[in-house]
Design a protein that fits this description.
alpha/beta; 7 strands
C-alpha cells in the first residue's frame, strides 16, 4: 500500500474524481477527511469507506471561505493528529462564452477554482511546515493549455492560475520537505461533463490518441503517485493526464 497510515484531506470528495480518490486512497491504507459543500455526499463516501474497513470522516467545506477552509484542516488534525497530504479536487465548470460572462459568473469560477485552491493550501501548510513533511496536489485543466474547447474563458483563466499557484507554492515550501504539483486532466466522465452532448464527447475521443475520454480513476491513479513517497523529488511540476490529446 503506497500511502499506508498517511492522513489526507480530499476536497470535492462527494462526487467525481474526489469520490474516486477517497475510495482508492482508503484502499491504499490512508486515513481521510472527505470534504465537500455537499455534506450528505461526503457522509455517504465516509460510510462506504468505513463499510470496507477503512477510516474516514466527512467534513463540510465551502472552499471559497477562509474560515471554512481552516475549519476543515483543524477538523482533520483534531481527528488524526497530522496532515500528510492535501488533494484539491473541488471546482466548478462553466461553459459560457465571452459575451455571456457577467461579473457573478466570473467571480464564482475564480473564487472556487483559484481563490479556493489558495485558501485550502494556506490553511494546510502551517501543519505541514511544522511536520516538515507534506504532499499537495492541485487540479488544473487542459483548458489552461489550449484555451478551452468546452469551458469558458473564465474557466480556462482560473485553471491557468492554479498552475501558477502550484509553482509559486512549490518554490516557497520545498525547504520544508513539502511538494506541490498540479494535474491537468483532459476531458473526464464526471458530473462536470454530464451535460456535454454525446457528439461532443465522441469528438473529443476522436482527437485523443488513446481513443477515449477519461474516467475518474485515470486522474486518481496519477494523484496517488504524487501523494506517495515515490514522488519525493518531484515538485512544481504539471502533469498532463489526458490520453495524449495534449503533450505539453
Amino acid at each position: 500500500m503506497l500511502i499506508q497510515g498517511k492522513v489526507g484531506l480530499i476536497t470535492g470528495a462527494a462526487s467525481g474524481m474526489g469520490r474516486a480518490a477517497s475510495l482508492m486512497f482508503a484502499r491504499e491504507g490512508a486515513r481521510l477527511a472527505c470534504a465537500d459543500l455537499n455534506l450528505a455526499g461526503v457522509e455517504r463516501v465516509a460510510s462506504d469507506i468505513a463499510g470496507a474497513g477503512g477510516e474516514a470522516i466527512p467534513c463540510p467545506l465551502d472552499i471559497a471561505s477562509r474560515t471554512s477552509a481552516r475549519a476543515a484542516v483543524e477538523r482533520t488534525v483534531r481527528r488524526f493528529g497530522r496532515l500528510d497530504f492535501l488533494v484539491n479536487y473541488a471546482g466548478v465548470w462553466d461553459g459560457r462564452n465571452i459575451a455571456d460572462i457577467e461579473d457573478e459568473h466570473w467571480d464564482r469560477v475564480l473564487d472556487v477554482n483559484l481563490k479556493g485552491a489558495f485558501l485550502i493550501c494556506q490553511a494546510a501548510t502551517p501543519v505541514m511546515i511544522e511536520q516538515r513533511y507534506g504532499r499537495i496536489v492541485l487540479i488544473g485543466s487542459i483548458a489552461a493549455r489550449v484555451g478551452g474547447e468546452m469551458g469558458g474563458p473564465h474557466y480556462a483563466a482560473s485553471k491557468g492560475g492554479v498552475i501558477s499557484l502550484g509553482r509559486a507554492l512549490a518554490r516557497r515550501l520545498g525547504k520544508y520537505n513539502i511538494t506541490v504539483n498540479t494535474i491537468n486532466p483532459g476531458p473526464v466522465e464526471s458530473e462536470m461533463t454530464a451535460g456535454w452532448s454525446a457528439e461532443a464527447k465522441m469528438a473529443m475521443a476522436r482527437m485523443t490518441p488513446l481513443g477515449r475520454i477519461g474516467v475518474p480513476d485515470d486522474i486518481v491513479s496519477a494523484t496517488l503517485f504524487l501523494v506517495s513517497d515515490l514522488s519525493g523529488w518531484l515538485t512544481g511540476e504539471t502533469l498532463e493526464v489526458n490520453g495524449g490529446i495534449y503533450f505539453g
